[in-house]
Specification:
By secondary structure, the chain is of the alpha/beta class. The protein contains ten helices and twelve strands. The structure holds 2'-monophosphoadenosine-5'-diphosphate.
Length: 286
């Protein structure tokens, strides 16, 4: 499809952005869905966030992804913020809906979708989340909104886990929350249904590390998820597979958060997981 006078534009704002593969995904989705839209990246200096959002408004850019370090900074300049994004306290997607800028956070949503897509249940389950940083916050809020029964948040810096606990208990009264240090043992894991790693342990430069001691024998029903996607099989997931557990790979969250942003900008629902997965494989990204 040629660019013409009606072609819509979506973008990423962040600093830096050169490494991003969001353009591959969104330009591919636009082509596949026959939507006249292009996606590009803008490297926005931290002191230029307000101007960047004014630019989105002035130019009628239909939507934007927001990445590090602007996910919080953009919030005061938006007209409306989705409830869960407000609770998370960060926005990764902006929809310019007829001149009104609405903020969303599709990170946690993308994660929840990736678990459900594999046929696992989260509703009324006990979920243990390793880490209490930005990614954990998005995931924990979406899990609570989805209706998990209990959340155990494990983090070395306990104060961060405490802040997250208070956030969840103040907005989701039906969810039980407990916090503990990131030293998980068999007793703590015994009644956990789903385990999620949101720390960078296992990621390329830390690929020989795992947030769980590999000598631990997990309960047979445990589902193990990692949000680290390079390498595809992290040390944690390999440990889980050794014990014949079901696993959810990090790439699922990445793909689903992108698809959710695309759906918001274009106000539609699409089935595109498999084709985006193949695209990323073809490009050597996964
Ligand atoms: P992100 O936005 O990717 O979640 P972040 O906000 O920096 O990144 O959060 C990183 C999380 O991983 C934090 O929970 C951090 O623990 P602390 O709060 O105790 O710092 C955790 N983390 C990072 N490196 C870690 C390591 N080497 N061992 C254990 N936890 C680690």
């Amino acid at each position: 499809m040629e660019i013409n006078g009606k072609t819509k534009l979506a973008c990423l704002i962040g600093h830096p952005v050169a490494h991003s593969f969001s353009p591959y995904i969104h330009n591919f989705l636009a082509k596949e869905q026959r939507i006249d839209l292009r996606y590009t990246c803008f490297d926005v200096e931290p002191n230029k966030v307000k101007e960047a959002l004014e630019g989105i408004r002035a130019l009628g850019i239909v939507g934007s992804n927001v990445t590090i370090p602007h996910k919080i900074e953009v919030m005061p300049y938006l007209d409306e913020i989705d409830r869960n994004a407000q609770i998370i306290g960060a926005v990764n997607t902006i929809h310019n809906k007829e001149g009104k800028l609405i903020g969303y956070n599709t990170d946690g949503l993308g994660f929840v979708k990736s678990v459900l897509a594999e046929g696992h249940v989260l509703k009324n389950k006990h979920v243990m989340v390793l880490g209490a940083g930005g990614a954990s916050r998005a995931i924990v809020v979406e899990l609570a909104a989805h209706g998990v029964r209990k959340l155990t948040i494990c983090n070395n810096t306990l104060e961060k886990a405490k802040v997250l606990e208070e956030k969840v208990t103040s907005h989701f009264q039906n969810v039980q929350v407990e916090i503990m240090p990131l030293q998980v043992n068999e007793t703590a894991l015994a009644d956990v249904d789903v385990l999620i790693n949101t720390t960078p342990l296992g990621m390329s430069s830390k690929k020989d590390l795992s947030p769980i001691d590999e000598k631990i024998v997990p309960p047979a029903h445990l589902v193990v998820c990692d949000i680290v996607y390079t390498p595809h099989d992290t040390k944690l997931l390999k440990w889980a597979m050794t014990h014949n557990l079901k696993v959810v790979h990090g790439i699922g969250m990445l793909i689903n958060q992108a698809i959710s942003s695309f759906e918001i900008w274009n106000e539609l629902e699409i089935e595109a997981y498999e084709s985006v997965y193949c695209l990323l494989k073809e490009k050597g990204i996964i």
